[in-house]
Amino acid sequence: MTKLLYIVMSGKEAEQKFDMAITSAGRIAEKKLAEKVKIIFFGPSELLLARATGERAEKLKKLISDGIVDSACVNMAQNMKIDVELKAQGILLEGYSARMMNLLNEGYVPVTF
Fold it and tell me: pTM for the whole thing?
């Protein structure tokens, strides 16, 4: 079975892509259509992640509690001054390149949004 790595970069300029990514990842994990599903956030998507409200926030809380949200980029979060908000949500902050490469080396197949 395939392990999927969702790489979400879309932010306010493409909120629909962001929402499609988190919805799709949640459904695939829920229906056990993949061995594992992980999401990493990078760039503009981190603002949507940090400031999520309503239905989006509820979906993200579930993805975080289910261990599907893997991490967000620490450097981008610090530059955007949202690192404290992301940590408060229980999101791991790590270097994007190293984290992505670790997951790819573990056999995850990338899907980008």
Answer: 0.94
